[in-house]
Design goal:
- By secondary structure, the protein is α+β, with helices and mostly antiparallel strands.
- It folds into two domains: 176 residues, Sandwich (Jelly Rolls); 114 residues, Arc Repressor Mutant, subunit A, CATH 1.10.10.
- Helices cover 48% and strands 15% of the residues.
- The protein has a five-stranded mixed β-sheet. The protein has a five-stranded antiparallel β-sheet with strand order 2-9-4-7-10.
- β5 and β6 form a beta hairpin.
- Pfam families: AraC_binding (PF02311), HTH_18 (PF12833).
- GO terms for molecular function: DNA-binding transcription factor activity; sequence-specific DNA binding.
- Keywords: DNA-binding, Transcription, Transcription regulation.
- It comes from Deminuibacter soli.
- InterPro entries: AraC-bd, Homeodomain-like_sf, HTH-like, HTH_AraC, Tscrpt_reg_AraC-type_HTH.
């Protein structure tokens, strides 16, 4: 099995849009991808993070990619997406064609529309990365993205404003698709904002804050109210959301790097490495060292199929 070099192992490589884009676009890019002719940058075949939002509407071909230890087989007609800072890995399999869209937080900030950041497709509260589209939804998104592509290729006046408007429509539309199958979430729409704010805070503070009461204080609500809201909306407790985020990051660091377990414990805010071991085992059924060994077994994860 292929792993990162000793130099790369200390940290998971992190790529900006300008580094990933063949044309060097820094804030926004949309393009048609022909999997038979497109040249892929080498970093897509090793575990890496992106600092931008990524959408891919598949037109043809099947492929497999991984996001935080979950594999997705791309299928024609579906939409695949990720948010910044997740760990990605693409397998070397069959070519895929479709429409590629990427944009950064900075591009969103140009609009000064804070409500966009509360859209489900950007916050991704269910941690999903695939949307199965109906035929009508696929046609709508394909037409919209083609309009975006045509505008992107022009040098017309107010080009940026036009692209921002198209992107707003896309994000709202895809958010509707995202939530349509979640009847429980739809019936508790009033709780969505608190849940989204909670998840945002957890992503920002999980290295330091491990208690639900800490987040309740930041949200200016009681711990009981926060827990009841989270549980009603997601079916999980506030504490479980924090613990799941810690476990995901621990697995990333164990699998993709060579930090010692005690170093990972300290990096995640655990002062006692022994407690971190017990915490990890309680939630996963195995110790951090055991997970690192088993997760690197080629037969189990089959990450580098040629």
């Amino acid at each position: 099995m292929q792993f990162l070099s000793d130099k790369e192992k200390r940290a998971i490589p992190h790529f900006s849009l300008s580094e990933s884009s063949e044309a060097g676009h820094a804030l926004f890019e949309i393009k048609e991808v022909d999997g038979h002719t497109a040249k892929k940058k080498p970093h897509v075949f090793i575990p890496h993070r992106k600092d931008y939002y990524f959408f891919f509407l598949v037109k043809d071909g099947y492929n497999r990619h991984w996001v935080d230890f979950v594999s997705y087989e791309t299928k024609p007609g579906n939409l695949y997406f990720t948010v910044p800072h997740q760990v990605h890995l693409k397998e070397k399999t069959t070519p895929v064609s479709g429409l590629f869209l990427a944009f950064t937080e900075e591009f969103l900030a140009l609009q000064d529309r804070h409500e966009l950041r509360d859209l489900p497709i950007l916050l991704n509260p269910d941690n999903r990365h695939e949307l199965v589209l109906s035929e009508l939804e696929n046609v709508f998104l394909n037409d919209l993205m083609m309009h975006m592509l045509c505008e992107f290729k022009t040098n017309h006046d107010w080009k940026s404003s036009m692209l921002q408007s198209y992107l707003n429509i896309l994000l709202v539309y895809v958010s509707r698709v995202y939530t349509r199958s979640n009847s429980a979430a739809n019936s508790l729409a009033g709780s969505r904002q608190m849940v989204n704010r909670m998840k945002t805070l957890v992503n920002e503070q999980f290295h330091e804050l491990h208690q639900a009461s800490d987040y309740a204080q930041l949200l200016h609500v009681s711990p009981g109210h926060l827990n009841d809201t989270i549980k009603a909306y997601t079916g999980r407790t506030a504490t479980s959301l924090i613990q799941e985020r810690l476990i995901v990051e621990a697995k990333r660091l164990l699998f993709h790097g060579d930090l010692q377990v005690k170093e990972i414990a300290y990096q995640l805010g655990f002062e006692d490495a022994a407690y971190f071991n017990r915490f990890f085992k309680k939630l996963t059924g195995e110790t951090p060292a055991s997970f690192r060994l088993h997760s690197r077994d080629r037969e189990k994860y089959n990450l580098y199929r040629s």
